[in-house]
Amino acid sequence: MGRDGGRDGARGGAARRAGRLAMLPLGAAGRSVAGWGRRALGADADALALDALARNADQLFAVLGELKGGAMKLGQTLAVFETMMPAEVAGPYREALTRLQTTAEPMPAATVHRVLAEQLGSGWRSRFTAFDDEAAGAASLGQVHRAVWGNGLEVAVKVQYPGAVAALRSDLAVLRRTGWLLERFLPGLDARALLAEIAERTDAELDYRREADHQRAHAAALAGDPEVRVPAVVASAPRVLVSEWLDGVPLSHGSGRPAADEAERAERDRVAGALVELLFSSPARVGLLHADPHPGNVLVLSDGRVGLVDFGAVAELPDGVPAVLGRLLRMLADDDPGVTTAAREAGFLTGDTGAEDIAAWVGGMADPLRDEVFHFTEPWMRRQGLRILRPGGAAYRGTGRSLDLPAQWMSLLRVTGGWMSVLARLDVTVPVRGCAQAWVAGFADPVTDSPAVPR
After folding, report:
1. Quick count: other Cβ atoms within 10 Å of Cβ 241?
2. Is the Cβ–Cβ distance between 280 and 434 less than 8 Å?
3. How far apart are CA 404 and CA 209, in angstroms?
4. Which uninterrupted H or E stretch holds 298?
5. Measured between alpha carbons, how far is 381 from 85 in angstroms, rounded to an integer?
6. How far apart are CA 331 and CA 446, in angstroms?
7. What is the mean pLDDT of residues 17-43?
């Protein structure tokens, strides 16, 4: 089915894909039983875990390969876990995610023109002095074209795929039914919560007018910042977004490869430091946090500034990071044994979970906050993954579920973990603690009590 299939075609295609997927879980169940048998015979548990991880990855990507747009949304989210994979699995995992995120077929020019006419009016061409019919980039919901606005400004025109709404929601429904496979692949993952968050976030991303509002808010709040640039919004409609074109090198170009020399390392550290300060300061300055942790959304501009693009996914924090959360992070970073009592008194903890369990679940999130500077590396991030991917790691999922944080705060923690994964792939050293002290309410406060927070 092409992109032009419409709502009924999208639903029919999703139903056919769901039928083909129905038989897939049987294979994973059989492999799981075989693994238990081999373990009973004395096979090495770690070797079995890695073998099962690789086999479950094959099946997971067989499922995702049938889903197109939904797979790309999930793939973007799962990319966070890449640096947490054991070395034996990280390579194939990375290749599979790359395939998922680069297989979208471009819309024909006639389809692009029709969407532009529907969204910007039949005279849409008169708004531009030039428009490139060949897409400059593709995403899960649409594609981007380079153009020149009537006033001579170079712009990026994001056009949503026809039928994207119905197809994507159908795909996400299939993913929710196969969520158990995600948990088998990533044992410490709460797949139900993750997929619910993706679905909620995707609903917000489907309306480009809302994305335009988020982008305008960032551009206004960060105007004049010497380290950061956000492209201006030129025009918007429900399925078309026109914004200033930024020329720059995506941060992904340096991701995963070592710095060539000290000068390149210093430049990476500088750019990473600007990104970290932007992420820590955004809730306080904008009331929003960019929630799509992908290095392709960060550009290094010719003047050295960091360009931030794609504001479809954001976490809304109108009052900034809550002070009580900042105080708890400070207690975790300082290994304060009172963190359990503080979390329970604030209403964030149920059951018998203790300080060690909380620290284990939060994992390396507190590590960068312990010292004045922190070196993000893939081996460090991989060590965090070992806690949940090795046998017994699934126990930490119970700790995560006993943390009764509001949904938007859980989203904040997941997004933070995602950006940490990006930094780990860049292999950078950043003064994270200073950024937290400057911008996160409560982090620099002495912890003298733990007032309950209104729910």
Report:
1. 27
2. no
3. 32
4. strand 298-301
5. 9
6. 10
7. 36
DSSP-assigned beta bridge partners for residue 290: 314
**Other Cβ atoms within 10 Å of 341 Cβ, number:** 14
CA 134 to chain centre: 27
d(CA 269, CA 256): 15
User: What whole-number percentage of the chain has pLDDT above 90?
Assistant: 34
Taking residues 124-139, report their average pLDDT: 92
pLDDT band at 148 (very low <50, low <70, confident <90, very high): very high
pLDDT digits (tens, 9 = 90+) for 194-243: 677 677 767 667 889 999 999 999 999 999 999 999 999 999 999 999 99
- The Cβ of residue 173 has, within 10 Å, a number of other Cβ atoms equal to 14
Q: For residue 432, give both structure tokens.
A: 């994270």
Check: CB of residue 130 under 8 Å from CB of residue 148.
Answer: yes
pTM equals 0.77
Report residue 81's pLDDT band, with 50, 70 and 90 as the boundaries.
low
SS3 143: strand
Q: Locate CATH 3.30.200.20 in the chain.
A: 109-164+205-244
Q: Residue 248's CB: how many other CB atoms inside 10 A? A: 16
* Level-2 CATH architecture, domain 109-164+205-244: 2-Layer Sandwich (3.30)
pLDDT at 96: 59
Q: Cβ distance 175 to 162 under 8 Å? A: no
Cα separation, 14 vs 177, in Å, equals 13
200 near 41, Cβ under 8 Å?
Answer: no
Residue 335 is encoded by which pair of tokens?
Answer: 């290994």
Residue 156: strand pairing partners: 146, 243
Range with lowest mean pLDDT among 27-36, 153-162, 359-368: 27-36
Give Cβ neighbours of residue 108 (< 8 Å, ≥ 6 apart).
Answer: none
